[in-house]
Specification:
The protein has 377 residues and is an alpha/beta fold. The protein has twelve helices and eight strands. The chain has an eight-stranded mixed sheet with strand order 1-2-4-3-5-6-7-8, sandwiched between helices.
Length: 377
């Protein structure tokens, strides 16, 4: 029997299960299902390519000779078909994004775009773009490497660009800049935006409100320095985050210019134009203080929000972001876009996938709508 080929087929089938089904225990199984699922749920074509290549290689080397070998070849069709299902669920994101934009911002807002097939099918893990320059490890505070940020800007440095600040996820105890939402940062930077991705102080050495204070420091730094890279800090400043970073972004957006979170820089303007939370945990912080939940900080003058979450998120169930969506919509005078991504797991923002590219299109349209309203004021 072609043992190596059998192992490939079994592994592909196991990964397919991890992509299609939410597994929350036992702990070791959850770890592997989460890690493998978050990758291959976004880039299922890599497994299909591997199955096709391994099948062709097995035939070419004469390994398919027995009935059992031919049965394994037949069984390989099942995981291949499963990954086609995974891919089709990712493709449905475009419709979900369009419907969410139309519902929150008005009919005709969410327009369909042609996905970048070459990037998605052939280069999903390569995020860099030749027209974008990354300026790394700029200090914004006195906490060493945890107070460093990266700036992404178009190489031509066009003037008057909008600003996006992004905070990474990682349960507030791990993670770093330059790892998450890079397709978004590079896409916007290639359109003339100035994008910033920042580290911040982590647990257990630091807890709330130190993370939020760092977020405020980043916003203040950007307003002071972004013009050097082609941005107009008076035009539009968007704040975004993934997972725990989404929690930070929401808190920052809902506590503009709050002196308690700006020690030593109380006069700095830390307001933002809009907030974007991707697969975010949007509830109470670890200490259980109700004041750490964005739900309890909603206000009539809250900026527009775009909240995107996968309906198969293993770490944060959809009831969590929906609570903030409902709270904002009941109080805020600004629109709230809520996108529930079909088949989306946690950390869907790592690669060029049908799902994330469709969401990036939606973020661009959301930003254009927000900026048009800001200019009209």
């Amino acid at each position: 029997m072609a043992v190596g080929y059998l192992v490939t087929v079994v592994l592909a089938a196991l990964i397919a299960v991890f992509c299609l089904v939410v597994i929350r225990g036992p702990k070791l199984l959850f770890y592997f299902s989460y890690r493998l699922g978050l990758v291959f749920n976004e880039v299922p074509f890599l497994v299909i390519y591997a199955l096709v290549a391994s099948t062709a290689l097995a035939f070419a080397e004469g390994d398919i000779v027995t009935t059992a070998d031919r049965v394994v070849v037949g069984l390989a069709v099942a995981p291949a078909a499963a990954f086609v299902v995974v891919a089709r669920r990712g493709m449905r994101a475009a419709s979900a994004v369009g419907l969410a934009l139309n519902e929150a911002l008005g009919a005709g807002t969410g327009t369909r775009r042609r996905p970048p097939l070459a990037r998605i099918l052939l280069r999903p893990v390569f995020r860099r773009r030749s027209d974008v320059r990354r300026v790394g490890n700029l200090g914004y505070g006195d906490a060493g490497r945890r107070n460093l940020l990266d700036v992404y800007h178009h190489r031509s440095r066009p003037e008057g660009g909008s600003i996006l600040i992004h905070f990474h996820g990682g349960h507030y105890d791990q993670g770093r800049k330059n790892t998450q939402s890079l397709p978004l940062l590079y896409r916007l930077a290639s359109q003339g935006w100035v994008c910033v991705s920042a580290n911040y102080r982590l647990r257990p050495a630091f807890s709330h409100p130190y993370h939020l204070i760092d977020a405020k420091k980043v916003i203040a730094w950007v307003r002071e320095h972004a013009k050097e890279y082609g941005a107009d800090p008076e035009a539009a400043v968007f704040v975004s985050g993934s997972s725990a970073g989404g929690h930070m972004a929401a808190l920052a957006a809902l506590t503009p210019n709050e002196p308690a979170y700006q020690p030593g820089f109380e006069e700095a303007d830390t307001s933002v134009t809009a907030a974007i939370a991707l697969n975010g945990y949007l509830g109470v912080y670890f200490d259980g203080d109700p004041a750490t939940s964005p739900v309890n900080l909603v206000r009539a003058d809250a900026p527009p929000f775009l909240i995107a979450h996968g309906d198969l998120d293993e770490l944060v169930e959809t009831e969590n972001p929906k609570a903030l969506v409902n709270a904002l919509r009941s109080v805020s005078t600004s629109p709230v876009v809520y996108v529930e991504l079909p088949g989306g797991h946690h950390a869907f923002d790592l690669f060029h996938s049908f799902r994330f590219e469709a969401l990036i299109d939606g973020i661009e349209e959301f930003a254009a709508w927000v900026k048009a309203g800001k200019r009209a004021i």
